[in-house]
Amino acid sequence: MKTVISPNTGIKPVTATVNARGHLEIGGCDTVELAEKFGTPLWILDEETIRLSAAACLKGLKGYPDARVLYAGKAFLCTAMCRLIDKLGLGLDVVSLGELHTAANARFPHEKTYLHGNNKARAEIEEALKQGINIVIDSFDEAKYVVQCAAAVGATAKVLIRVTPGVEPDTHQHIKTGQHDSKFGLPLESVPELARFISTSKNMELRGLHAHIGSQSGDVEPYLKVVDILADLIDGLKKEHNIEISDLDLGGGLGIAYTEKDRPFPMFDWSHAVSERVKQAFSQRGLSLPVLMLEPGRSIVGTAGVTLYRAGYRKTMGNQTNYLGLDGGMADNPRPITYQAEYTACVANRMNAQKPVDPITLVGRYCESGDIIIKEAYLPADSGDLLAIFATGAYNYSMASNYNRTPRPACVLVANGQADIIIERESIDDLVRQDRVPDRLAEGTHQ
User: Fold this and answer.
1) Mean pLDDT for the chain?
2) Are strands 291-295 and 247-252 parallel, antiparallel or unpaired?
3) Among residues 107, 201, 95, which one has the least CA distance to residue 149?
């Protein structure tokens, strides 16, 4: 069988090379030239890595009759990304009115879109109903509310029930979602009652079950365990309550490599193993195979992303710690201060320079002591250098802020030597665009 590339196992984009000038090149574009043209900080997305990531996951499902891969909008979403994942044959998970609007603006197919969230607003539910978007029910109260909204707009809600299977992956506590005390979903014992309620409601159609145990997991075994748990649940719903389940969304959140020590499970192997387990589990219980959905999460876009920073001041502290300041930091990448996330970097304008004996700590420009991008990086970096941080495609743009009243960076999509802006850089005028001043504070009035 032809080798399948699973980009989530590598730290760099698949097109990353060193050109004749000793510069980092991505998607056929010289990163030094990108920085000069678009400024820094700059988010770069490599289109080829995204394409290969989607292909790896889809190829792992080739032996399954009806399977779909859903892209997690929360990882990185903009209009261009919606258009790209549609062309790649992926569905989409959204969790807000803003993400719904972005998908609609990109004319993303409604039938391939799923609305998630543990406290959905009325506007989000009604928009999903009007567009015919699938809704993942998170609680009994929400189910009742969806019935009311569906009746009000004259629609039938197509729903899945989110289940908390009690399985914990090997990941950070803040991004586990499948344990018993998770804020998401319903415990297994509560599902039959909710399934009966939905099945007997005029304005709801029960399509399936959904489970998501967390993200940045590097082990396939927890996912296989979830398959068996949900197969038992579906078997019980059919035999004890005469309720048929046609769709099964097993979530995902597969991990990526941020550093050399990370060993994520390859995307192709993951999707193949999970789909084979579903076939086995449902056959053993005499159940028809459901429509299978997987959510590989950050692994579609994570390693496609690189952030460019310009190095500023350098200083050595009394304890001999060497600091090098960057022109960005926690406002464009909050993951280190939030999850103690680790990254890998390089000096993009001097890729062939020899590594130093002493390490240097790359620090952000923001007013927090925890604004550190990488501690003790062995890089030949100095003031004026261009630093590239790898694996920043997921949760950097989507979690970015205007902390310290700084504009958010631009994002470019690179492919075959061409770089296209897909998110414009914010200006300082953008920062005050929505500010309003009360009359009593207007210029010329004094008290």
Assistant:
1) 93
2) parallel
3) 201
**Neighbour count for residue 277 (Cβ, 10 Å):** 19
**Domain boundaries 1-45+304-447, corresponding CATH code:** 2.40.37.10
Packing angle of the helix pair 140-153, 191-199 (nearest 10 deg)? 10
CA distance 360 to 387: 12
Report the pLDDT value the prediction gives residue 213, as an integer from 0 to 100. Answer: 87
| Residue 306, beta-bridge partner list | 44, 390
| Residue 173, pLDDT score | 44
Burial grade of 319 (CB within 10 A; 0-12, 13-18, 19 or more): exposed
Domain ranges of the chain: 1-45+304-447, 46-302
Structure pTM?
0.94
Q: Is 229 helix (H, G, I), strand (E, B) or coil?
A: helix
Cross-strand pairs, 372: 363
Q: What are phi and psi of 392, to 5 degrees?
A: -110, 20
Per residue in 71-110, pLDDT tens?
999 999 999 999 999 999 999 999 999 999 999 999 999 9
Break the chain down into helix, strand, coil percent, rounded to 5. Answer: 35, 25, 45
CA-CA-CA-CA dihedral for 361, 366, 369, 375, to nearest 10: -20
Per-position DSSP letters for 316-333, written without gaps between them:
E-TT--EEEEES--TTT-
Type of residue numbered 151? A
Rounded Cα distance, 132 and 109, in Å: 10
Q: For residue 298, give the amino acid letter.
A: R
| pLDDT score of 151 | 96
Question: What Cα–Cα distance (Å) separates residue 381 from each residue in 25, 292, 312, 328, 354?
Answer: 18, 48, 10, 16, 10
Helix (H) or strand (E) holding 147: helix 140-153
> Which position among 29, 78, 82, 367 bears the catalytic label?
367
Between 169 and 63, residue with greater pLDDT:
63
Q: What is the mean pLDDT of residues 294-319?
A: 94
CA-based end-to-end distance of the chain: 80
Instruction: Quote the pLDDT of residue 293.
Output: 98
**Cα atoms in the 13 Å half-sphere on the side-chain side of 404:** 14
Residue 190 CB-density burial (10 A; 0-12 exposed, 13-18 middle, 19+ buried): middle
d(CA 77, CA 83): 10
**Domain at 46-302: CATH code:** 3.20.20.10
The answer on pLDDT for 218 being more than 90 is no
DSSP string, 400-419: ---GGG-PPPEEEEEETTEE
Nearest one of 174, 216, 274, 264 to 75, comparing CA atoms: 216
Task: Establish whether 29 is a catalytic residue.
Answer: no
